Input
Amino acid sequence: MDFVKLTIVMRELALQAGDKIMEIYGSDDFEVRSKSDESPVTIADEAADAIISAGLRAAFPDTPLVTEEQAASHAQSVSTFLIVDPLDGTKEFIKRRGDFTVNIAYIENGVPIRGIVYAPAKDRLFYTDANGVAVEEEGAFAKDAPGATHPIKVSTPDNSALLVVASKSHRDQATDDYINKYATADMKSAGSSLKFCLVATGEADIYPRLGRTMEWDTAAGHAVLKGAGGEVVRFDDHTTLAYGKPGFENPFFIAYAPGVQLKQP
Output
């Protein structure tokens, strides 16, 4: 893989998709339908997917592509591939709460090594550069040239006063029970893959997820967190979360800054 080209293409497509999403977000009304798994989908999901998938297939025709909105792509058995969630946090989008993201990642041998997370309503853009270092870009996000970036790095956690982030739309008692095993100084809620990015920037120390997710929900955020020195492990045995699993479904997991003393389930 040409990582310089990949970084440029992912950034441009994420920004284009973000523009289309915000155009629909700002409209008076948009249709919401239910997919076969009862999760919501909007015209914004589909429009963003069309932009990203066409761009990735044109730029990297020999690399398999898995995308949430194209069910046929979910039947593939792959370990090195591109994976897309064109609009993560659809519920946040529908409620106009802003915590939604565009996500593109590259998986190599089951490991998410490059990714981009763009939160257009929050004006935050996180990605791995050509060397795999996680950065946050500042400025106007011009499509033809990156603006100023700064490397992001996970925190050095204080296990007596941890900063926790958890899901805004999928919080449950099991999650609260697990969080209560830790000594926490602050607890915040966020939607979509932004939670990974908050750990990556040091704005949070740990993000436990005790609920159903798919690989396209997590791959880009995982790549950004990895590039910032963080880790994502399975909840049950604390082994690294791998990609290319049958059906692309994740187990429960924990994203965290090394130094957090993980508790057993």
Remarks:
- The helical segments are 3-25, 43-59, 90-94, 173-179, 194-200, 215-227.
- The chain has two domains: 3-151, 162-256.
- The two ends are 38 Å apart (CA to CA).
- The mean pLDDT is 94.
